[in-house]
Write a structure and sequence with these properties.
The protein is of the alpha/beta class. The chain is built from eleven helices and 14 strands. It has two domains: 32 residues, no CATH class; 289 residues, 3-Layer(aba) Sandwich (Alkaline Phosphatase, subunit A), CATH 3.40.720. It is 28% helix and 15% strand.
């Protein structure tokens, strides 16, 4: 993956870079992983997950003037990996197939995850959950009746090791994000989930039509993305914001098979339908469009590459996001 922004390195600079790696004693595997990202990495990455809308419901929709007006790179061939919602959330952090087949919040996923790897490498993480009543809250919903916060959208608490470990204390109410931005203490990785009335999912407590849920979600993004962009972390360092939908919500709107797949095919993980992904980079102008096939594991691989962590994707899925300027792998029409 070509790291966004910057210029191509010269032969001399590459030679000096390789010599430095040899001098520092990096393993061949470590060298390969560093060389995959020779340009400036991001200091911070934020993933905002919205709910249950297909790409066709989002892209160009006049009810989303804010989202469709944000400057960034848009992915037109990006796919969720499963249906229903919960398996997509845990795949974004590292869960491997077979993924859970339900939204049952009692699911506990074993194994490694992005937050756990970041903690091991001394990197800070946080989840900011709208409607969460307190740090590390472990209930299935809040309020308990007609809850708008739901644990099934809180993947930090679905991995067994995270739920039992110190990372649980990094699961905060969304209101904490405003302070962390103001006082310049944004973690290296942040996960943001709106409640059911603001993520476009909907619930009994919302009493909204599908159209009004979309508008409400757009207003949520219109509040928080500019607030992030006004922060010192965005202005003084490299910060990535990813806005992505978990899945399309129902098969009637999922968008059919992928527009194209690389040959050989690295992935058939697209069972939740085509969804929108926007990548905002504080050090790169917007306006790019990528038609390359990608899915939630592509986003995960991009994050682990950026933070120099071991790959957490399943075998054959380690294909990071590719921007429109790089070109796509050879395509195979389906």
């Amino acid at each position: 993956m070509r790291r966004p922004g910057g210029t191509a390195p010269t032969v001399q600079s590459v030679f000096l870079f390789l010599f430095a790696l040899f001098f520092l004693g990096l393993s061949p595997g470590g060298v390969a992983r560093v060389l995959a990202n020779p340009l400036s990495p991001a200091d911070h990455a934020i993933v905002i997950v919205m709910e249950n809308k297909s790409y066709r419901e989002i892209a160009g929709n006049p009810d989303l003037p804010s989202f469709n007006g944000f400057s960034g790179e848009r992915f037109t061939n990006y796919w969720s990996v499963a249906h229903p919602s919960l398996p997509n959330y845990i795949a974004l952090l590292g869960a491997h197939p077979p993924l859970p087949g339900s939204d049952d919040p009692r699911v506990r996923v074993p194994g490694d995850s992005l937050p756990q790897e970041m903690e091991r490498h001394g990197l800070s993480v946080a989840a900011y959950m709208q409607g969460l009543p307190g740090d590390g809250y472990g209930g299935p919903s809040f309020p308990r009746v007609f809850g708008r916060y739901v644990e099934k959208h809180d993947p930090f608490l679905l991995f067994s090791n995270l739920r039992k470990g110190p990372v649980r204390g990094s699961v905060h109410p969304l209101s904490r994000l405003a302070d962390d931005l103001s006082f310049d203490r944004l973690p290296a990785f942040s996960f943001i989930a709106p409640d059911l009335c603001h993520d476009m999912h909907g619930a009994f407590a919302c009493h909204m039509s599908r159209k009004n849920l979309i508008k409400k979600g757009d207003r949520f993004l219109s509040e928080w993305i500019p607030r992030i962009e006004r922060s010192r972390a965005f202005r003084k360092s490299r910060l990535w914001i990813f806005v992505v939908w978990d899945e399309s919500g129902h098969r009637a709107s999922w968008g059919g098979p992928p527009l194209s797949l690389p040959d050989p095919v690295p992935s058939r993980m697209h069972a939740g339908g085509r969804v929108a992904l926007l990548w905002i980079d504080s050090r790169r102008p917007g306006g790019l469009v990528s038609p390359c096939f990608a899915n939630h594991y592509s986003l995960l691989e991009t994050l682990t590459e950026n933070f120099r962590l071991p790959s957490l994707t399943p075998p054959g899925e380690a294909v990071p996001l590719r921007d429109g300027e790089d070109g796509c792998p050879e395509k195979k029409n389906q």
